[in-house]
Specification:
Layout: H1 2-7, E1 13-18, H2 25-28, H3 34-41, E2 46-49, H4 52-65, E3 70-74, E4 77-82, E5 85-91, H5 98-102, H6 107-120, E6 124-131, H7 138-151, E7 159-166, H8 173-193, E8 201-205, H9 210-219, E9 222-225, H10 234-242, E10 249-253, H11 259-262, E11 267-269, H12 274-286, H13 289-305, H14 308-322, E12 329-334
Length: 336
C-alpha cells in the first residue's frame, strides 16, 4: 500500500502496525516473495509491532534477505535503512480501555455474575474466552482440563469450566470442522465426568455483549488464556482490569504477546504441554489470596498504565517525530 501511494506522489507520513506475530527468518524464508514483501514494508515511515520478539524477527529477516540493511538506535526505536529507504521500527503493545472494564458495569453484569455464582455453588470457576480459531488452542485447553480432572481427582465436582467460543469464519470448512471437534471434545469430557449435580464444562457458542462478558470475568476465579500463538490477546488484559478486588489468577500462554507485559503476575505455560497446563491450573485454584492480590496488582498496574490510549499516543507520536515536515500521518493496521 505504501509503495503504491509513493508512486502516486503521496508525501505524507504513513505508519503501519502489524497486529499479528511476525515469524522468524527460518519460517519467513519459505515465502518466494520474501524480499519484495520486506521492501514493500520499508516504504512506511513507521512500522510497529506488538512485542520485542516481533521486532527481532523482522530485523533478522531484513538482515538475511535484504542486502546492505543498516540498523541504528533512535531512543527506544530502531531506524532501519536499506535500498534508499528508511523506517523507524518499534514495539507498541496494543491494549484496552482499562476504565471500561474496571467499572462496575450495569445490571447485565451483576445479573450474569450472580447467576454464575448461584449455579456453581461452592465450585471454583475457570474461564476461557476465544474467537473460533485454530490458533487459540481451544482443543489443547480442553484436553488440559481433562488431564486436570484425571490427575487431581479431588477437584471433580469442585470446579466448573466456562468456555465461550465466539463464532468466526464458519463458512470455511476448516473452521466448521474445528467447531465440531470442540463440541465433540466438550461432550466427551462431560460424558466422562458429569454427575447428577455437576457438569465439568459449560459451553457457549455465541457472541457475548460486553456488559455480560464483564459478568463472566467477575465470576471467574481463574482465566485460562492459552493460545498456540497470538499477537497480543486482549482477553488476558480484560480479565485483569475486571478484577478490581485484586483477586483471581491468570494462566497465560507464553506464546501470547500479552505474556511479555504480564509475566510478573501471570502463570506462564506452554499450551502444547497439557500436563504442565493442568499443573498450573491446580496451582491457580489453590493459590492463597495474598499471592493472588500481589500478582493481580502488578498486572492491573501494567494494564492501567499502558492502556489503549497510551498505545495510540506512543505510536502516532513516533510517526510525528520521525518527519515533522510532513503534515499528516496515515495509519494502517494489519491482522485481526
Amino acid at each position: 500500500v505504501a509503495q503504491s501511494l509513493r508512486r502516486r506522489g503521496f508525501q505524507n507520513r504513513i505508519a503501519y502496525f502489524n497486529h499479528i506475530p511476525f515469524p522468524g527468518p527460518d519460517v519467513f524464508e519459505a515465502l518466494p516473495w520474501r524480499a519484495e514483501l520486506l521492501l514493500g514494508l520499508m516504504h512506511y515511515d513507521v512500522i510497529g509491532f506488538q512485542t520485542s520478539r516481533d521486532v527481532r524477527n523482522f530485523v533478522a529477516s531484513l538482515r538475511r534477505f535484504v542486502p546492505d540493511t543498516r540498523i541504528s538506535h533512535l531512543g527506544k526505536s530502531l531506524v532501519v535503512k536499506t535500498a534508499g529507504l528508511s523506517a523507524a521500527i518499534g514495539c507498541y503493545p496494543v491494549s484496552i480501555d482499562f476504565d471500561e472494564f474496571a467499572s462496575a458495569g450495569n445490571s447485565a453484569t451483576v445479573v450474569t455474575a450472580g447467576a454464575i455464582a448461584q449455579s456453581v455453588g461452592e465450585a471454583k470457576v475457570v474461564l476461557g474466552v476465544d474467537r473460533l480459531d485454530y490458533t487459540k488452542g481451544i482443543l489443547e485447553r480442553l484436553t488440559a482440563f481433562r488431564v486436570f480432572l484425571q490427575t487431581y481427582k479431588e477437584w471433580q465436582g469442585r470446579v466448573t469450566m466456562l468456555q465461550i467460543v465466539i463464532p468466526s469464519r464458519e463458512e470455511i470448512p476448516e473452521y466448521k470442522r474445528l467447531k465440531v471437534d470442540i463440541e465433540t471434545l466438550v461432550s466427551e469430557i462431560n460424558g466422562e465426568y458429569s454427575t447428577p449435580g455437576w457438569t465439568p464444562i459449560r459451553y457457549f457458542h455465541r457472541s457475548i455483549p460486553r456488559d455480560e462478558l464483564l459478568g463472566f470475568y467477575r465470576a471467574a476465579h481463574v482465566a485460562l488464556v492459552t493460545p498456540l500463538r497470538d499477537g497480543m490477546n486482549l482477553v488476558a488484559k480484560e480479565f485483569c482490569a475486571a478484577h478490581a478486588d485484586n483477586r483471581g489468577v491468570l494462566v497465560l500462554s507464553e506464546f501470547a504477546g500479552a505474556a511479555e507485559e504480564l509475566a510478573t503476575g501471570a502463570l506462564l505455560v506452554n499450551p502444547n504441554d497439557t500436563e504442565a497446563v493442568a499443573s498450573s491450573l491446580y496451582y491457580a485454584l489453590t493459590m492463597d489470596e495474598a499471592e493472588q492480590e500481589q500478582r493481580m496488582k502488578l498486572m492491573r498496574f501494567t494494564v492501567r498504565t499502558y492502556d489503549v490510549f497510551h498505545w495510540a499516543h506512543s505510536f502516532t507520536q513516533e510517526a510525528s517525530m520521525l518527519a515533522p515536515e510532513k503534515p499528516e500521518a496515515i495509519l494502517r493496521v494489519a491482522g485481526d
